[in-house]
Every structure is written in C-alpha cells, then in structure tokens.
Design goal:
This protein is an alpha/beta fold. Helix 1 runs antiparallel to helix 2 and helix 2 packs parallel to helix 6. The two termini are 40 Å apart.
C-alpha cells in the first residue's frame, strides 16, 4: 500500500470515528500517523529529476506576496492591474503555467507579487504541479487567496484544506508549547493552564508514535492534539492570509455585504476595477511594514522631509514576539 492509500485510509477512519472521551487517544494516534505520512509525501524524491524550466523566482523587494487560487478566478488580471507586469489572461483554465513575478510600489516599498498557476483539488498530493505551487507559497510573507465570488464558499474550504495538509497555517499563531527532546530521563510533562483538549497520556502516546521517549513538554496555553503535533514536526509555516473575493459585479449587493463582513476578507472586481485601493491598504496592514526615515545629524525631526526611506520587517507570523506600537496595526486583529 502506497503513502497516498495510507493517507486516504486514515482520513476515512478519522471521519467515521465518533469524537468522545473514549476515542480521543485513538484519534490522537491517527492524527500523528497522518502527519507522518504527509511529511513523507512532501519529501523530495531521491531519484534524479528531469531537467526542465525552473518554477520558483528569486526573492526581491521588501516583502513577498503569493497569489493562490483555482484556475480562472482572476489572478493574472489582478497582477496586470497592480503591477507593470503583463500576465496572460484568457477565458480558458490554466492560462498561467509557471510563476510570474511583478512588483507593487506602495508607500515607498517594493512588494513582490507572485502569480502562481491555478491549483486543483488534490494539489497537496502533487496533482497539477500542486506541490511546486504550494512550495513557493511557503516562502511568502502574506498569501492572497483569490476566490470567485460567484461560487460561494466551496473554493475557500478546499484551498484551506490543501494548504493545511502541507503545513501552512493561515491566520494562526504558533502554539505556545515548549518542547525539547532529551537523551534520557523519560517524558517530563507540565502545564501552566488547565488543559481541556490534551492530557498527559495523549501527549505520551503521540510522542511514542514519533519514537520519542525522552523529552520535556510544557503547555503554556490550552492547545489541541493537532497543534501539539505541529510543534513536534517543527516545519509548519504560520502566515497571514487575505481572502479576496473577485467578480463581485456578478452577484447581488446582499451577497457582497455578507462576504465583505467575513474575517480577513476583501471584495473586489478586477473587471470593473472596484475596491483595489482598499485591498492595497489591507495588504500593507497584513505585511506589517514600517517606514523609517533618516535625517541629518543635529537637525530636528521633520515628517515633511523624506530622505531615503528604509523598510524594516517586523516578524509577521510570530504573534508572541510582535508588539505593535500604540495606535499601530496588528495583522492578527480578529484572528
């Protein structure tokens, strides 16, 4: 039985298993096995790959933003509108077959925007060059998930599932769990809060599944077994995500209002160039970039004098280290 078949069997067993006190240990082990198989699936092949066109592009500018979405949702049109790069757009699917970079110049910053090929269901297992697309997305500072407003919530749920299965956590902070493997002494388990989702026995079972028999574990918040597994694996990427609903000119005003009120969501129309300015403002907020202006020695600070602006990144993705200044913008507000 191959890895894909094992993953499918475990997912089916998790789906048909009732969640209660009697099955929580069994479900915890299943989730640990599922994470192991998915990690093996993402490992690069040992056989020499055939030479071909490269997919990733060199990172440049002050920040990188990746456009992810299904085919024909407006990613290439959005790139052409926001940057000086012309990305081919057509009425058929899979117009874009490789990664196309562009640069957005906003408030003195150069933001690299990547137009990635449309992904399909099963991309995490490698369908439609899905692994390559998602691998590029992992290197981004912010993900823009482009969605077709006429297709409801189906696309959003499928894309979130694909990204979740390859270790990309959207609009989430890193679990506040201290974990350190040791050479001996067994498993030391402690918590500073009351745990309602994990127990010491479940933690030990999960660690044994990963062949870890000596470690120090400290829970500083009430985390789920999935979050604890993420800490053990250690290769998860936590990044902010903007859900952008395109083609709002084709739906009712009531539906536009409903989509716009969803958390982390922006509604636009590339065809009619609606709400693009607000999207740029939200993108700047989620990137958490700060402008620093230099001045000559001995002269008073003057906000009207702008000389050589410098962009400094404030560590988006680590909620515990980012402390916005008073009145500043927090990309995780409402997360």
């Amino acid at each position: 039985m191959g890895i894909l078949e094992k993953i499918s069997e475990i997912e089916k067993e998790i789906a048909r298993t009732q969640k209660n006190k009697a099955t929580e240990y069994h479900l915890g082990l299943l989730k640990a096995k599922l994470a192991k198989y998915r990690a093996q699936l993402l490992e690069p092949s040992k056989s020499p790959a055939a030479k071909g066109e490269g997919f990733d592009v060199m990172k440049s500018g002050d920040a990188r933003v990746a456009l992810i979405g299904f085919p024909s949702v407006g990613k290439s049109t959005f790139l052409s509108l926001m940057t000086s790069t012309a990305s081919e757009a057509a009425s058929y699917e899979f117009t874009t077959l490789t990664c196309i970079p562009g640069v957005i110049e906003y408030k003195g910053a150069n933001i690299q925007l990547l137009d990635l090929p449309g992904i399909i269901e099963g991309a995490a297992q490698g369908k439609g060059r899905g692994r390559q697309v998602i691998a590029v997305a992992r290197t981004a500072d912010v993900v823009i998930m482009m969605l077709d407003a006429t297709k409801g919530e189906v696309q959003r749920a499928l894309l979130e599932k694909e990204l979740e299965s390859v270790g990309i956590r959207l609009n989430k902070s890193k679990p506040n769990i201290y974990f350190k493997p040791k050479k001996g002494g067994g498993i030391s388990f402690n918590s500073t809060v009351t745990l309602t989702q994990c127990s010491e026995k479940l933690v030990q079972l999960i660690l044994h599944e990963y062949k870890i028999f000596n470690a120090e574990v400290l829970f500083r918040e009430d985390c789920s077994p999935d979050e604890f597994i993420d800490v053990i694996v250690g290769n998860r990427v936590y990044m902010p995500c903007l859900y952008v609903y395109n083609k709002i000119d084709q739906i009712s005003m009531e539906e536009v209002d409903r989509l716009a009120r969803r958390p982390h969501s922006v509604v636009i129309s590339c065809g009619m160039k609606l709400n693009l300015d607000y999207l740029l403002e939200k993108l700047w907020e989620y990137l958490a970039l700060t402008c620093i202006y230099t001045k000559k020695r001995g002269l008073p600070s003057d906000s009207q004098i702008i000389s050589q602006p410098v962009q400094i990144r404030l560590g988006v993705g680590d909620k515990h280290k980012v402390q916005p200044s008073k009145g500043g913008l927090n990309p995780y507000d409402g997360a």
